[in-house]
Predict the structure.
Amino acid sequence: MTGRPTNAASRSGIKSHVTKWINKIKDYENVSADLTIRNILLGAEQNLRGNFTKFVKLSNGVVNDMERDNATQEDFDRETEHQIKVEEEVSEALVIVKIKIDQYEKQQEEEKREASEKSIATLLGMTQKAAEIARQHDKIAADAQRERDRLEAEAIRDQDRLDRQQEVQAQNDLIQQLINAQTAATTAAATAAAAAAAGAGGGGGAGAGVANPAPPQTTKLPKRQIKPFKGDILEWTPFWESYNAAVHQSTIPDVEKFGYLRDYLKGEAQLCVENLELTDANYAVAIATLRRTYGNQDVLIDAHMNKLDSLTQIKDASDTSALRCFQLSIQSHINALVNLGIPKTSHGGLGSRILRAIPHKLQTEWSKSATNKVTDIDHVLTFLQEQVEAAERLSRLKPQTPKAQTNGQVAKTPSTTQATASQLNVGVVSKTTPNSKSKTKKRMGSPPPKGGASATAPRKTMLPCVFCKEMHWATNCSMELKDKRNESSTKTKNSPYSLEKINSTKSYSTSQRKSVRVV
């Protein structure tokens, strides 16, 4: 029967394991730490600690055995030195493990820091690259826009050059036609004169030559006036047509055209060309800018549609001028939309808006016919035009009747003398009844007072208008002020009561009196 192993024998076996793990740890002392070595060292450390714990426990048993066996002090000293040596070796191995683990963690932190810096640097590089790409894209877009503007300006210049060439060619053709016509007329006149001279008896001597034909008469047209453009998009088309015919298509240099253009632009439109220098190249840029801003077809359509959506209501059916302006304004906007490609059939809802804006009397006339369709814009416009024309005819034919007397008495028509032609020309009112002792001076063709007249006061007989000869007061005449002035000036000069004729009569009378005194 085998005996139980002693503490010394067991400790010797554990000591061999401790030495093995210490040597294994020392093998990695000079090796660079990585994840695999870290895991190996952690496993070796765990095994070393476990075996060393067993070694310490068995060493205590060995000391007890030595005390029981009465070992000498020298034996105890050797035992103590042996335990201290093993403990120092274990401590050195554990220090190596700790150093390697710290190196690995430090290396990991360094790698993380480098990776973070690398990521930041990569992100920064990508951001800079994106910014550079954006700058290049903006530069390309700006270059493309400049190229488009240049091409557009060149196209405008080419078109203008072509228009000028066509205009010059047309002028040359016209001049050639005039020369041909004048030559033909001269030849015909010479032939006719020769035939007439031959028919008169063989000529009237050497001095009876053929008379030169009269030079062709030319008519000098008035100078066209261009209304300044202030930025109202509805006024752009008429402004451009006038400016294009008078200035843009002319043969003067572009810099002079630019000067005219600046003079004709006011308000908002002037801001479009305010900062452009007065050069030939900038004239094309200014024209392109104005066309792009105010010649946009969609914006023009919206402007006309907004005008049709905001019609002003006409309340008085007898106000023929307001009705005519209303009708002409609607027709003008519809014609403009048709020219812009918007057909009348797309204005179905406009008929109801027009009918709501006309007076109630005209709405009643419209509702009398069951065949009237508010969706038929042509029918609505025809109805409106017919009603306006009927109202104008009625206003011209309607007589001026005296107002009813407040006390129920009928006003007596005062007897008047027939006005002479000279009195009609200068607007002198005929005399009233012989019983009237004083002459009331009135303004030329002024209407009678509207209020305050008594029942017995005589009422002035209406005379024809001194301007248009229609039966209405001169203050209600529809002629333009300029035409009125011209008519009045002509009639005043031809009147026997004009200042010139009166002065000439006075001078003649004075000379007659002087001659009588001399006799």
Notes: The chain is about 65% helix and 0% strand. Residues 448 and 460 are 7 Å apart (CA to CA). Residues 203-210, 405-446, 449-457, 512-519 have pLDDT under 50 and may be disordered. Residues 73-199 form the longest helix (127 residues).
